[in-house]
Fold this protein.
Amino acid sequence: MSLFTTSFAIRAYVAAAAVGVTAPVVGTFLVQRQLSLIGDGVGHLAFAGVAIGIAVGVSPLWGALAVALVGAAALERLRAQGRLAGDLSMALIFYFGIALGVVVLSAANRFDASAIGILFGSIFTTSRSDLTLMIVLCAIDLAAVAVFYKELLAVALDEEAARASGLPVDALNILTVGVTALLVVAGMRAVGLLLISALLVIPVAAASRLAHSFRASLWIACGIGLLASLGGLLVALGQGSVAPGGTIVLAALLLFALSMVFGRRATRRHARVVTR
Amino acid sequence: MSVTVKLDDLTFGYGAEPILSHTTLELLSGEAVVIAGPNGSGKSTLLKLCVGLLTPWSGRISVLGLPPTDPAARRRIGYAPQRIRGATSLPVSVGEVVASGLVPQKSLFSRMTAEDWRRVAGALEAVDLTDLSKECMFELSGGQQQRAVLARALVSDPPLILLDEPTTGIDQRFRPVIAQELRARAERGRTVVVVSHDPEDFHAVIDRVIDMADDRVRELTHEEVHTMLGRRS
């Protein structure tokens, strides 16, 4: 039982809970805007940031943060200009980020097991300072969504109408990708850069089977994200040798599968057109 | 009656050819206007120019006394674009969609108040959707989604209402309800501009029909309106 109450395990719980709650909050807006893959794009770019950070001798987290923020802003600019409409542009960015990261890490003689931890998570090695940074990044994300909720929702529902009504759509779009970048960096330790996007999307997809409204989707997705994160972590702790990043994402997928079976839209969505 | 929208020698096009050429037009407060014309004549483009989504090649536009890109002007426009955004990725309730029309009027940290929700209820009642306010948009029919988008444009009771094909997909029995609601808004001093392929839907409630064809804008005479509607019926 002590395995579950050691300081590294407690730090892992807190980290998993913070990311598990925050990722779906950000992801709800991304999924609604059909930008589900942007978290993946930012994650791949952040890997290059980690590598650059190591190469120049600064913390990998700060390297990831800088490149993720700049990359997210660039991705949004490409999208706004209509140059990111298809999945080809996004695929090219994935390859660029991961290839640059591999090249820089190997050139710095650091392409070792730590790279696996960056890509797939190493939550049990979360230090106190790592945890502090993760909590701060998640808190910034939650605060930004709380403050700008109604504006972000208006843009997510209809960008053209929102722009026509005088909302600062460009600034709100930058905010959306900015909080995504922060979340990706916060989740780097918890589930890794290649899997964090799953926590942005899967709980939201599950919640969409259960909710009536956007607000309800967001709350339910938070609950599913938290459940998957802590459940996956517990499985990894109990089993002892499996990577928690993978178990967390598999737990989220299990909850999604359950929502497919038991969700209200599993049987009703296509059968039910409201008559009036 | 004051001038709400003023187009002065306006020219705009998408490629090399202009779709609007040296267009001059004034729309007044308290009038309901239908903009008619064939596909590709620039009807939707005209509305997008009025809300600042497009920038003219030359000439000037004034909306409520301001440039159309000025947020102060945009916040006072109720705009319903042609494409229905009902096919949302997530469940979004009808009430949430309509309430989003109030967001530009709200300050940054303010929450939706009971008065705001009363306005949402009023807008839903105006388009006869009251009992569907908690339903998901993507579970509604196309016509019901269209009415929800219309309610979003009306909910803030803006002085300028710009609607692009507002009756598309709406049952014939609801079209007079929509037309009468727009007439009531015009009677209260609002400017109502409707782009429509079906001007007969609004025949009983409009003051003018503007025809767009061959990159020109022209107001139809009463005789021409009757001839056009007679030809369609």
Notes: Chain B has a mean pLDDT of 89. DSSP finds seven helices and nine strands in chain B.
